[in-house]
Amino acid sequence: MPAGRKKATFEPIAPDFDLSELVENTPNFVYVDRISCDMIDQQGLDAFDKLVLLHVIIAGKPLIIDGYQSRLDPWTFSSKWLIDNHGDKVENARELTKATYMPLTVGHYMKNMDKLADQFFENGDNWKDVKTRQRIYLKDIDCPPVWQDKLKAHLPPNLFYLNENTGEVGGPGALDEPAPTGGRRKGRGIANAGDLMSSLPPLMRAENLMCYLGHEGTYTPSHREMCASLGHNIMVDASDVVGDDGKPEKPGSSIWFMTETKDRQTVQEYWLSTLGHDIEVEKHFAQIAAWKTAPFTTYVVEQRPGDFILIPPLAPHQVWNRGTRTMKVAWNRTTVETLELALKEALPNARTVCRDEQYKNKAIVYYTLHKYSGLLMKARDQQQTAPSPQEAAALRQSAKIRQLQKDFKRLFHLFRDILLSETFSPDSPAERNVQFNPFDSNITCAYCRGNIFNRFLTCPSCENALGTTEPEPYDICMECYTMGRSCGCIAKFRWAEQFKWKELVQKYELWRRQYIELSGPRADTPLTLTEERAKMQTKTLAQICQEQLKIRPKIDINKPAAAKVDAADDSESEDEVETNEDGSVKKSKKKFSEAFLKSNWSCHVCCHRHEKWKMVECKCGRKWCYGTLFRGFDTMPVSIMKDPKWECPHCQGCCISGQCKNNPKQKPYEPKGTLLGHDTKLVADARSIESLVDFSVSNLTWLKESVQDAPDENSRLIRRQQEAEQAKAHDPSLEADHYVDDDHPAQGSLNEIDYETSTIDPTLDPALRLAIDPALGGPSYHQDGFVAPSAVMYRPPASDLAGDDEDESVYVEAGDGQSRKRGIDTMDVTETIKRQPVKKQRRSENIANGGEVSGASKEFRKEQERKALEEARKKGRYIMVNAALQGRSRIVRLQLDPQVLARALSGAQEEETNVLLRSDILPAPGAAVITTKPAGTQNKSKPVRIRVERDEDFGARRPRKTRPLDAEGKRMPKGYEEVEIGSDESDVEDDVAGTQGDHAQAELGRGGRRRISAWQAQRHGNDDDGPDELPKDWKDSSARAPRASNAVTGGAKKQASASTTSKASGASRSAGKTVPGSLRVPGHARVGRVQNPTSSSSSAASDDGDAEKGAQEEDDDDDDIEMDESDANLAAKLSAAGLVEAAEKNYDYDDVHKVSGKRTVPENAARHAGTVKKTSATSVLVPTTGFKAVNGANSAGIAKKSGTIRRGGRKAI
User: Low complexity bias located where (predicted)?
Assistant: First the structure.
């Protein structure tokens, strides 16, 4: 849409808005007609079904059935029940302010609805805030099965969701069927279905029984029901003055603004030309001022609990929710009438804006015909085998069966049109290699997202263009292909079908014979498919596609595009500068190459050259581009392609080109409607293109009137109003060809069906009767003080209004729903509609300089620009300079999830204001983003059992009853040990935390999560004598220093150990601080964390032979030693026993050492060997050679005190 186009803005409705005052003071506002559910019981379902057919479907007006609040269970249809039974279910709520979705649980949303509603009542201006206030609408969620069953038991069965049979129990044609309680019972008689969606197999049906939960300020934008279906909406519960929990609430209700079906074209044009929005897109909630100035009747109602609203097909409407809470259930029904409207009008409109089709209308036609054919055969067989003539006559005269026959005929005509559109050309050879895909109703058009019934085009070259792991086929419907939509290959398509064509033709012939059997030979009797095709004067869709596949180019997108010849050499030559005699520059002329002229034509109107296959040539020789014909003459490409005798606008005498504007024979054509344009590329498949018409361009430049003209001055609106008035001039009646009307002859009027809402004493004064009787147009007073006039269906008899001034009364005219307001004259209700400010467009250089410039100036500026671009190219700024010269800027828009972006920027972004509800599924803003595991399980360690070999060198035995317990409290089997393994992320967090100087801060990981237990942090919080930095010469040491060269064995090692005892004791208190990582001394092993503090101590000591054997055993620097001891003086005792060497050596520092999946950070590791003190993780550094001595002479004393010593993950020593 052009940038200069003004659009109406969103204007909220005030919480204290008075609807009754609006209706009384606005001429084009009337209340929706309403009846009571008790009257349905009194009049019968047949009369009610006829009322719905006449008033809602044929007349196209909304209807309300009230009184169901007393029939629905208050304990089931309540917020408490919904929270208790479905509170944990996750749904996507619509955040209307941001136009995004928020995942949350139903219970979380229900519990916070009071906060969301109260924000609009806090002060007098909060409701006007349209940018920051949260408006969260939980819509289109699945209806609970319990609610569905209870609604089905109370509502009229023919109006309910997926009704399969409208016949009466035990009616004509009813058969015995099993009863739920056992035995047999009579089923329903043969009749048509209330909802034709039920004809589809269960897996193909669209589930549209939905719930809508909203609070004050939420709304549904102006829209029409999908695929021209019938809408049904009942409010099952709403907030009252006091809630179930005793807290105060705001009474809940919903305000509906509705129109009638016959005004749909007027409403659409008013939305386009006056408000600047397209009602097919469903994004705009119209202001009250817009409804006041609308040139059509607006039906309003404030829906409260128990109100059941019937919405006519294709009738635009919008809804505004009020109060703390509103709970509604809605669904749609498909009938024969809605199918006709869908295939003729709704689907083409939806295809233009790429609105997906969910109801599979063509498939419904096919499967319903199959179902109805079987029912009619069953009725015929029962009639032939009836035991008595009376039963046969009952079947023959049944109104339900006769209506079934008429619906069958109407569906057959729709099916015939579907098959004819898919018929190939009889003159062309049969298509070969047609791909067959069995029908499953899941193939949709890649561009318009419409459901494809049978034949379509598929591109085998684009399957891998998206870069997905699996091939993604590109399928396009025939309708879109005739509009110029396709993938980049344009014409490299092959045919595909989902039904065998012979099977469809056989079905057609079977149903055609059945059609003739029902109606007999008539002038309009359907012919065979071949005869019907020969009788057509136009081409079929399939035939058009066949021709276009031959005309359009075949482009292989998988191959690199051939180098294009420069435009100066191919299409245009360089402008030659020529001068006149006086030296002035002549206007340069564009020269095209012969090849370009042969492959491109110039349009008669726009004068631009297009490729030949993108244009159409008339018999007069003029060429026209499809874009001009679409925007300027309201002609779709398919309308031109299917007509072999098509005449151009010039031949029709309505050309608007500059060449014909002075021709007296030409009367310029004026577009009949406004086109705003839609960028469908954002919705369609990424591989899609538009080659014939750019549907994102509007036709505003083709319109004569200004877009700001008042509705009464807009010729397009006036034309639409006149068409609507002509359609309303005919009283709704039952056509004999389409309906059966034996029980209640309508005679062209609705007045024959007498619906009353109350019984009033006829002796009462008529004025009083008007005041208290809703049936006569007076207001109905509810117990809660709500006053709303109940509009009735039909005007009361004139005798009942004797003595009343007809002009001063308030009542509804029969059949038209228009009310006469008491004491209101024709008044001016014109109100300013708020619009968005117009963005300033960049003016061209010529306009900015005050007019046209000379040719010499153009040449000079062109040379200056060329030099500037050359300099910019050298400096690497060519793109920016080129854009600046053209007055453009390149804005790169990244499509990011708003919630992910908010979390990424949470550190530098301020807290959002007015945020009352956050998702209970997504992490809070500012929290760590968890990408690998759900919240709460990131740093949890996992217990794992590992097999442990028995240590034959160490004879300590463990008591039998002291085997450790596993995580479940059970004794672990012998030969296994349980260790804990943590995540990699927790290890990284520990590394980061371990490098911090403050020990207290090191105890907390990212996001405040603890790494070690609290008692350990408190116990070692005062240890400040450990090293806090590495030695200055640590880089000079080798990555893994060699073992000590003076290692001795046996008694020599004992002497070496004894000689180092004093040095180790004296150096054990060396100053130092925390080292990032474990400190490894060459030739030393690390003693790990205590695993089994309850283990028994060793009761046996090794002899000298064991010591010699241990001295001969090879040292392993990578093995970790775990000690079952928590004594604080463990390091000192090890040192006293001669286990630590005090030699000055270079040390290497390896990565963080982990024992049993947990970090062991030595806090007080000394800079010299042997200066080791107990750490926070009970880790010590022990010389390997000294440890061999432990196995020798000193093992007995240490084992008794320290317990079992094991080497981590391997054998005990």
Answer: 1051-1074
**Is residue 271 located within the same domain as residue 405?**
no
Reference 32, options 266, 259, 208; nearest CA is 259
Instruction: Look at the block and give the residue holding tokens 């309708």.
Output: 479
Domain boundary among 490, 518, 551: 551
Confidence of residue 537 (pLDDT cuts 50, 70, 90): very high
Domain boundary residue, one of 287, 314, 333: 333
- Whether residue 133 is found in the same domain as residue 237: yes
List the CATH number of the domain containing 314.
Answer: 2.60.120.650
161/993 Cα distance (integer angstroms): 60
The rounded mean pLDDT for the chain is 73
| 628 shares a domain with 535 | no
Distance in angstroms (rounded) separating the CA atoms of residues 1006 and 1103? 51
Give the dihedral sign, CA 1106/1108/1112/1114. Answer: positive
pLDDT at residue 980, as a whole number: 60
- Quote the pLDDT of residue 933: 46
1148-1149 and 1079-1080 strand pairing: antiparallel
For the residues of 846-864, what is the DSSP string, one character each? HHHTTS---HHHHHHHHHH
Residues 707, 273 contacting (CB under 8 angstroms): yes
- Number of structural domains (the chain) is 3
Which neighbouring-strand residues pair with 689? 486
Amino acid 561: pLDDT: 54
Count of residues making up the chain: 1213
Q: Give the integer Cα–Cα distance in Å for 444 and 449.
A: 5
The terminus-to-terminus CA distance of the chain in angstroms comes to: 82
One domain for residues 391 and 517:
yes
Same domain, 108 and 226: yes
615 pLDDT more than 80: yes
pLDDT in the model for residue 112: 94
CB of 832 closer than 8 Å to CB of 289: yes
Distances (CA, A) of 1161 to 14, 813, 1079, 1119: 64, 89, 9, 17
SS3 breakdown of the chain: % helix, strand, coil, rounded to 5?
Answer: 35, 15, 50
What HEC string does 714-775 produce?
CHHHHHHHHHHHHHHCCCCCCCCCCCCCCCCCCCCCCCCCCCCCCCCCCCCCHHHHHHHCHH
CA dihedral over 816, 818, 819, 824, signed as positive or negative: negative
Within a domain: residue 314? yes
617 and 547 belong to one structural domain: no
Query: Strand 474-476's sheet: what is its strand order?
Result: 435-436, 494-497, 456-459, 474-476
Decide if 853 is inside a domain.
Answer: no
DSSP 296: S
Same domain, 393 and 284: no
The helix (H) or strand (E) run that includes residue 104 is strand 100-105
Strands (E) located in 517-638: 600-602, 609-611, 615-617, 623-625
Let me know if 601 is exposed, middle or buried by CB neighbors in 10 A (0-12, 13-18, 19+). buried
Helices (H), 330-465: 336-341, 347-353, 361-384, 389-397, 399-421
Instruction: Please indicate, yes or no, if residue 545 is contained in any of the structural domains.
Output: yes
Q: What is the pLDDT of residue 1113?
A: 45
Is the domain of 544 the same as that of 684?
no
Q: Which domain holds residue 629?
A: 594-704
Measured distance CA(637)–CA(1019) in Å, rounded: 84
Residue 1099 placed within a domain = no
* pLDDT band with cut points at 50, 70 and 90 for residue 1001: very low
Residue 22 in contact with residue 724, Cβ under 8 Å? no
SS3 437: coil
Q: How far apart are CA 91 and CA 102, in angstroms?
A: 8
- How many C-beta neighbours within 10 Å does residue 1172 have? 32
Alpha-carbon span 222 to 288, nearest angstrom? 12
Helices (H), 773-854: 845-848
* Structural tokens at position 443: 């193939």
